[in-house]
Design a protein that fits this description.
Elements (H helix, E strand, L loop, with lengths): L1 H13 L3 H10 L13 H12 L4 H6 L6 H12 L4 H11 L6 H6 L9 H12 L4 H15 L7 H7 L6 H4 L3
Length: 174
C-alpha cells in the first residue's frame, strides 16, 4: 500500500505547476501551502481516469487521510467515477470526514447520483444534519446540483434554512 501512495505522489509531483500552486494557495487560506502540490484540475481528472482502471486504486481510496490537497482532489475525482450508487455513497461517507477545504468539497459530484435522486435526497438530508462543516456543505452542494431544476420542491428551502452553523464555509454555501 505504501508503494501505491508513493507512486501516486510521484505522479502528482510530475504534474506540478508552481504558478498554479501559488494561485491555489491564495484561494484556500485553510490549507497549508506545503500541503499543496499544484496540479491543474484537467490533469487531475485525466490521472483519475487512468488510475480508476487500475485494480490497486481501491487501496488508494482507503489510505486516509491523504498528505496532500491534490491527493484529496484526485480521491474526489476517483469517487466520481464509481458506477454503483451504494458504493459511491459509502466512498463519499468514508472520505467526507477528511475533506478540509471548500475547493475539494465542491469538486466532488458522482455521476451515478443523477440516476438515484429519490435515494440521494435521504443522503443529502443526512449530510446536511452533520456537525462537520464540509459534510454539511457537500449536502447543500448536492441539493443545488440535483434539485434546483425540474426536481425542485419548496421544502428544500426549509432544509437549508434549518441549518444552524457559525462556520464560514457553511454560511457561504447557504
Amino acid at each position: 500500500m505504501h508503494d501505491m501512495k508513493t507512486s501516486i505522489q510521484s505522479r502528482l509531483f510530475a504534474l506540478q505547476d508552481l504558478k498554479y500552486k501559488e494561485f491555489q494557495c491564495k484561494l484556500m487560506p485553510t490549507v497549508a501551502p506545503e500541503r499543496v502540490i499544484g496540479v491543474r484540475t484537467p490533469e487531475l481528472r485525466k490521472l483519475a481516469k487512468e488510475l480508476f482502471k487500475e485494480p490497486e486504486t481501491g487501496e488508494f481510496l482507503k489510505l486516509l487521510p491523504h498528505q496532500y490537497y491534490d491527493e484529496n482532489n484526485l480521491h474526489g475525482f476517483l469517487v466520481e467515477q464509481i458506477k454503483d450508487y451504494s458504493t459511491a455513497v459509502t466512498a463519499i461517507d468514508a472520505f467526507l470526514p477528511y475533506v478540509d477545504n471548500w475547493a475539494t468539497c465542491d469538486l466532488i459530484s458522482p455521476k451515478v447520483f443523477k440516476k438515484h435522486r429519490p435515494e440521494l435526497l435521504r443522503e443529502i438530508q443526512r449530510w446536511m444534519d452533520s456537525k462537520r462543516t464540509y459534510t454539511i456543505r457537500f449536502g447543500i452542494g448536492m441539493l443545488m446540483a440535483h434539485f434546483l431544476d425540474e426536481d425542485f420542491a419548496p421544502q428544500y428551502l426549509a432544509w437549508v434554512a434549518g441549518i444552524h452553523s457559525e462556520e464560514y464555509y457553511v454560511i457561504m454555501s447557504t
